[in-house]
Amino acid sequence: MSMTPAPRDPKSPPIRINLLSDTQTRPTPGMREAMMRAKVGDEQIGDDPTTNELCGRVATLLGKTAAVFMPSGTMCNIAATLVHCRPGDEILAHPSAHMNTREGGAHAALGGFQITPLAGEDGMFSPQTLRAAIVAPNRYSAPQRVVTVEQTSNIGGGTVWKKADLDEIVKVARANGLVTHMDGARLMNAVVASGVSAKDYADGWDSVWIDFSKGLGAPVGAVIAGSNEFIGEVWRWKQRLGGAMRQSGMNAAACIYTLDHHVERLKDDHTNARALARGLAQIPGVDVNQPQTNLVFFDPSKSGVDTKRMISELDAHGILTGALDHRIRACTHLDVTAAMIEETISAVRQIVSKA
Ligand SMILES: *Cc1c(COP(=O)(O)O)cnc(C)c1O
């Protein structure tokens, strides 16, 4: 499984349509302006005014008392489990969770934690599945410490957890002494798609973070929020992991800019994703998910063109996509227009009809 392509052949045509990931956005002129004007200080000692403003805004957005700026979402997940767990503890997560599949084994390597899979469709598990996985404390079993969800689920297809299911999971967790952690890399996509506020989604979750370098379109950064005590502990791990920064205000300014200018427009990404899926579904032999947000997964293999070949032929058209298992992932984002979607659909149709 890989979404990381090999370096491109320098003789390939330039990429005109970049659907590889919503991390591929470039800072906009307005964002660069905001970065240039940012007031800065020393983040490590709590003296960077723009970073402090960002953390305050995210804490409020998520309904928590404190927050801290992190270099990446991966470091948010890692610092959170390092705070919540002790070596030998168990984390309950969907098997496709980023934590389990794309963080280099960090939770085992750095924490000595084991991740127990909770299976379910589309990257999500049910409250019943969680309930069934709970074991009464005994000296044979690893202590169960954390339950985590991804809102939205990445490998699940950008799917949105229902608020009622999240509430029920919190209830089961509370009743069994589990800490709750939400990987909100694309939480704002869920908010825009569902109309449920970020605060409502985060309600009852002990730690929650959002990524600014995904669909929101900032170059760097994520913010994790929780109680004062939790964030104090995260700060220690951030220092230990080398994540404490200096004049991070320039990056924080880009993140603040996204909260002001790039949240509502996520709707456009969702519209483009639906249009892409609709167009692809009309091509014989192409299987495609019904995107709820900005991630489209399709499998062209029944058309006679397998995933690997489709990716390389699209590349020759100047269209970049990524492989995930047997499927192709195409992400819509800030730098993808409706016209590019139409062009992508025609390119896939042409590649299939030639085969
Ligand atoms: C991208 C992603 C992360 C990691 O965030 P980075 O900022 O890339 O480190 C974690 N969880 C999910 C669901 C993601 O999609």
**CATH homologous superfamily (4th level) name of the largest domain:** Type I PLP-dependent aspartate aminotransferase-like (Major domain)
- What oligomerization state is this entry in? single chain
Q: Give the SSE string.
A: EHHEHEHHEHEHEHHEEHHHEEHEEEH
SSE class = alpha/beta
Quote the CATH topology of the largest domain. Answer: Aspartate Aminotransferase, domain 2
The percentage helix is 40-55%
Terminal CA distance: 25 Å
Radius of gyration: 21 Å
Sum up the overall morphology in one term.
globular
Mean pLDDT across all amino acids: 96
- Describe the sheet with the most strands: 7 strands, mixed
Integer count of domains: 2
The total strand number stands at 13
Number of helices: 14
What ions, cofactors and ligands are bound? pyridoxal-5'-phosphate
* Strand line-up in the sheet with most strands: 2-8-7-6-5-3-4
**Low-confidence parts, pLDDT < 50 over ≥5 residues?**
none
CATH architecture title of the largest domain: 3-Layer(aba) Sandwich
The gist of it:
The chain has about 350 residues and is of the alpha/beta class. The protein has helices at about 30-35, 50-60, 75-85, 100, 105-110, 125-135, 165-175, 185-195, 200, 230-240, 250-260, 265-280, 305-315, 340-355, and strands spanning about 15-20, 65-70, 90-95, 115, 145-150, 180-185, 205-210, 220-225, 285-290, 295-300, 320, 320-325, 325-330.
